[in-house]
Amino acid sequence: MQLIEQLWPEVERTRQLDAPHLGPLSTTFLISMSMPIINLPIERIERRRSNEAGAYADDRHIDAEVSAAVDRELGGQAFSTARFYREGEWRFVTTSRSPLPNLANALPDEIVDQLESDEAASAASKMSTSQWCGILRNALAHGGIAYLDVYGRSSYGSPVAMLLFGSGRYDRETGELVGVNLLRIKQSDYRAFLHRWVAWLSDSGLSALFAAA
């Protein structure tokens, strides 16, 4: 977070050499920097809650109080109760339309409209923190990210204003991809969310586990 804030002014002055009209490279920078901020605590503690035998990257046993703090915040409660949640920032839609949306292509109008709706904002507030963690973690880890413009549409040829995080839903028996979970947030709100997320990490003691020079 310190790197994001100290380098942000320079990033805002940096344009893509062959497409300066698309604005600063702040989206690429923000996503790149947020990957460890989000994924390390989720992957090394939250995702390990059901694995009592331990794992090759499991920090739960380093500090019991820290692990308990993660369980309290990310253990399946409503997302709206999380300290880093703010009403209206996130939108959530789950889709099983056929064919499934390809985030590398233009986002279908139907999904654009769904993500813009009040129902999508309400769905985000009611989803569990565990589900929210899973979607965000999977999207950042596996490239399930789409850049959207100010209208919530794919941003080809336009500056990025929103981020879309996608994670597949799979049939437990067959392993078949049957749907996609989608989270949308404005880029400015995502940066503000990161501040609150890091503040929570620091207050809970998690930041000490993942500190690096």
Which helices and strands appear, and what pairs or packs with what?
Layout: H1 2-12, H2 26-44, H3 64-74, E1 91-95, H4 109-116, H5 118-126, H6 129-142, E2 145-148, E3 162-170, E4 177-186, H7 187-204, H8 206-209
Antiparallel strand pairs: 1-4, 2-3, 3-4
Helix pairs in contact: 1-2, 2-6, 2-7
Structural account:
The protein is α+β, with helices and mostly antiparallel strands and 213 residues long. The protein has eight helices and four strands, in the order αααβαααβββαα. Strands 1-4-3-2 form a four-stranded antiparallel beta sheet, with helices on both faces. Strand 3 (162-170) and strand 4 (177-186) form a beta hairpin. Helix 1 (2-12) runs antiparallel to helix 2 (26-44) and helix 2 crosses helix 6. The longest helix has 19 residues, at 26-44. The protein is globular. The two termini are 13 Å apart. The model has no long low-confidence stretch (mean pLDDT 84).
Q: What's the overall average pLDDT, rounded?
A: 84
* Alpha-beta classification: alpha+beta
Outline, from the CA principal axes? globular
Whole-angstrom Rg: 18 Å
Head-to-tail CA distance between termini: 13 Å
Assembly of the depicted chains: single chain
Task: State the strand order across the main sheet.
Answer: 1-4-3-2
- The share of residues in helices is 40-55%
Listing every helix as H and every strand as E from the N terminus to the C terminus, the arrangement reads HHHEHHHEEEHH
- Count of strand segments: 4
- Give the strand content: 5-15%
Note the main sheet.
4 strands, antiparallel
- Please mark out the parts with pLDDT under 50 across 5 or more consecutive residues, or reply none: none
> Helix count, per DSSP?
8
